[in-house]
Amino acid sequence: xxxxxxxxxxxxxxxxxxxxILGTITHEYGHIAVAKCxxxxxxxxYASMEWSNDFKSDVLKTYDRYRxxxxxxxxxxxxxxxxxxxxxxxxxxxxxxxxxVLLTVFIGTAGFVILLFQYYKATNTTxxxxxxxxxxxxxxxxxxxxxxxxxxxxxxxxxGNYFWGDELKISNHLGCYEGTFSIISGSIxxxxxxxxxxxxxxxxxxxTFIFSGVLGSISGYIIWMIILGPMILP
Length: 234
What we know:
The chain is mainly α.
């Protein structure tokens, strides 16, 4: 019989709230780290980041000046130079976008690999360490969330656009089908989360874990995205 353990529900919900907030900020710092390496100045917001420098500003000014010619593929002064610059900007954008996603999945993969090693080697570990590794592995949940959010938005709001976010940008930059990266990363994340729930989380806490995941993730989203985030990092 499945039972909801109130104390565990409270503790795990708090962990999911922290995971939502820290996962969001960590993801943005992944973007920032790559942008800094490429020579851009950065501004961190609660759910995004901005990157710019004089080079990018010049490209944007050229676009504003010759918007009609560019959008209609007409000749204009310094067109060849603009094409070269915009190609570099697009390449940099790909790397910066990858930075956030790769940092997120790296953290999730590291936690999951250590957890797998302990699981199959029957390594003794403290309960605190085990739960810590579970929540590190749950960094992969971002990919699952983005995948299903895109599907839901596509069905109810976006008239057939089923993919969004960094994953969509990466697929577009690589010239792939727009859902390629979302489907792959979302599927991997779903497999990892399923394994955690079915194999790692103790059976008696399984229902509590699922409920706390829903409650904590929604609460974390509201607390950070709607209440605290816009005040702390507008």
